[in-house]
Specification:
single chain, alpha/beta, UDP-n-acetylglucosamine1-carboxyvinyl-transferase, Chain, 2 domains, four-stranded mixed sheet, 24 strands, binds ligand EPZ
Length: about 425
C-alpha cells in the first residue's frame, strides 16, 4: 500500500487546477444505463472510484472506454441486472445503478453497501423511494432484490435530505409512468447536474436546483452527453490548504456559486478571495481567527469539508467549534491529528479545537477519503516529516493530488509501503 511522505512546513505558491467532480460523475455514469446507446461524459477525473464504477457498468454488459478525459459508455448490449458484492463493498456509490436497472430492465440485484470508516450509512431512503414508485424490494443474502412490472409515478417526501437517495430515485422516476414529486430533494450541485443531464437526454423534470422536483415519466431516454462540473470539495480542500499554510494560491476550474459556505467559513478566519471567471485567488497569509462551522445540506457547509477545515482550525488562534449534523461520527481524523500535536476534544457531534503554535510531523494513518485530505494539509503545516499510510483512500477522490501539490511547492512524495497485511 502506497504512503505519502511530507516534509513540512511547506509555504505554497502558484496555481492549482481542480478536476471534474467525483460525486457528480458517479451518478452520471449510472444514468447511462437508462438508455441504449453511446453516452459521452467529458472531464472525467481519473480516480479509483470512477474506475470502480466503470467495472460495475462493464459487469452489467456496458462497454466503457476513455478518450483523453472523455468517458464513452456504450450500453447497447447492457442487459445485466446484478451489481456484485465484491465491487459494491469497495464503493458505496455502486448503489446508484439500482434506480436505472429497475426503471429500464424492471429488475435489479444490487449488493447492500456496507458501512464506512465512520459508521453505518443506511440506504433505507433509496429503498422506500423505489417501493413508492412500484418496486418490490426484498433483502436476501446481503443483496437488494428489486422487481417491478413497470414503475409508476408517486409523491415522495424524503424525511432526510439525501444526495444518494435523491439521485437514485430521480433516475428511476424519469422512466416511471405518470407524475412524480420529490419533496425535500437534495440540491447539491452534483444532483442538479444529474437532473440537467437527464433533461438534456429527454427526461421531463421541473424544479431543478430546488428541494421539490417534479418529473413526468417518458418511455425512453436518449444517451447522455455531459461535461462534469468542477469538484467543489477538491476546490475547497485547496482553499483550506492556503489558509492552513498561510499561503496565497490561485485555484482554477471552480464555480463561485458552489463555494459559498466554504468561502464564508474561511473568510471568517481572515482569508480573502478575488474571483475571476471559473477561478479564484485565495490569500491565506492573514488567516488568524478561529472557526465556528456546522455542516448542513447544500447550500450549507459541506460535511465533506469538515475534516479539512478542522486542520485550518488547528492552526488558528483561539477556540474553534466544528459540528457535523450529517454524520455525527465523522471524526476518525481527530485521533490522527492529535498524533501531530493538535488539541482537539470531541463533545458528541462537535469538535472543540484549541489552536496550537505548531504541529509536529509523525506517522499517521488515513482512514477515509476526506480524512486523508486533512492529513495531507496537516503534514504540510507540521514541522518535520509526516508519513501517511493507506493513501489508497485519497486516490478514490483526488486526481494526482501529490503532483498538483508538488507543483505549488509542497514537499510530498508517494512511496511504496509494505504489502497489504
Ligand atoms: C453523498 O453520500 C456523498 N457521496 C458523500 O461524499 C457526502 O458526504 C454525502 O453525500 C453528504 O453530502 C457521493 O456523492 C458518492 P446522503 P450519500 O444520502 O449520498 C442519511 C465523499 O467524501 N441517509 O446525502 O451516501 C445518511 O446517513 C463522500 O465524497 C439515511 O438515513 O449521503 C446521512 O446522515 C463521503 N438513509 C444523511 O442521510 C438513506 O437511505 C445524508 O446522507 C440515505 C442517507
Amino acid at each position: 500500500m502506497d504512503r505519502f511522505v511530507i516534509e513540512g512546513p511547506c509555504p505554497l505558491e502558484g496555481t492549482l487546477q481542480v478536476s471534474g467532480a467525483k460525486n457528480a460523475v458517479l451518478p452520471l455514469m449510472a444514468a447511462t444505463l437508462l438508455s441504449r446507446g453511446v453516452s459521452k461524459i467529458h472531464r472525467v477525473p481519473s480516480l479509483r472510484d470512477t474506475r470502480t464504477m466503470a467495472r460495475v457498468l462493464e459487469t452489467l454488459g456496458a462497454k466503457v472506454q476513455m478518450d483523453a478525459d472523455t468517458m464513452v459508455v456504450d450500453t447497447t448490449d447492457a442487459k445485466g441486472i446484478e451489481a456484485p458484492y465484491d465491487l459494491v463493498k469497495t464503493m458505496r456509490a455502486s448503489i446508484y445503478v439500482l434506480g436505472p436497472l429497475l426503471a429500464h430492465h424492471h429488475e435489479a440485484k444490487v449488493s447492500l453497501p456496507g458501512g464506512c470508516a465512520w459508521g453505518p450509512r443506511p440506504v433505507d431512503l433509496h429503498l422506500k423511494g423505489m417501493e413508492a414508485l412500484g418496486g418490490q424490494i426484498d433483502l436476501e443474502g446481503g443483496y437488494i432484490l428489486a422487481k417491478t412490472s413497470g414503475l409508476t409515478g408517486a409523491h415522495i417526501h424524503f424525511e432526510i435530505s439525501s444526495v444518494g437517495a435523491t439521485a437514485n430515485v430521480l433516475m428511476a422516476a424519469v422512466l416511471a409512468k405518470g407524475h412524480t414529486v420529490l419533496e425535500n430533494a437534495a440540491r447539491e450541485p452534483e444532483c442538479t447536474q444529474l437532473a440537467v443531464a437527464l433533461k438534456d437526454a429527454g427526461a421531463k423534470i421541473s424544479g431543478i436546483g430546488t428541494t421539490r422536483l417534479e418529473i413526468d415519466g417518458v418511455d425512453e431516454l436518449g444517451p447522455l452527453d455531459v461535461t462534469v462540473i468542477p469538484d467543489r470539495i477538491e476546490a475547497g480542500t485547496f482553499l483550506a490548504a492556503a489558509a492552513a499554510t498561510r499561503s496565497k494560491l490561485t485555484v482554477e476550474n471552480v464555480l463561485q456559486e458552489d463555494m459559498g459556505a466554504t468561502i464564508d467559513c474561511l473568510e471568517s478566519t481572515g482569508c480573502s478571495f478575488q474571483w475571476g471567471d471559473r477561478s479564484v485567488v485565495v490569500d491565506g497569509t492573514r488567516a488568524h481567527d478561529p472557526i465556528n462551522a456546522v455542516t448542513r445540506p447544500f447550500p450549507g457547509f459541506a460535511t465533506d469539508m469538515q475534516a479539512q477545515t478542522m486542520v485550518v482550525a488547528c492552526c488558528m488562534d483561539g477556540i474553534s467549534v466544528i459540528t457535523d449534523t450529517i454524520y455525527p461520527d465523522r471524526f476518525t481524523h481527530v485521533a490522527e491529528l492529535r498524533r501531530l500535536g493538535a488539541d482537539i476534544r470531541l463533545d458528541g457531534n462537535s469538535a472543540v479545537i484549541h489552536g496550537v503554535d505548531s504541529l509536529k510531523g509523525a506517522p499517521v494513518m488515513a482512514t477515509d477519503l476526506r480524512a486523508s485530505a486533512a492529513l495531507i494539509l496537516a503534514g504540510m503545516v507540521a514541522h518535520g516529516s509526516t508519513l501517511i499510510d493507506r493513501v489508497y483512500h485519497i486516490d478514490r477522490g483526488y486526481e494526482g493530488i501529490e503532483k498538483k501539490l508538488q507543483a505549488v511547492g509542497a514537499s510530498i512524495e508517494r512511496v511504496a509501503g509494505p504489502p497489504t497485511p
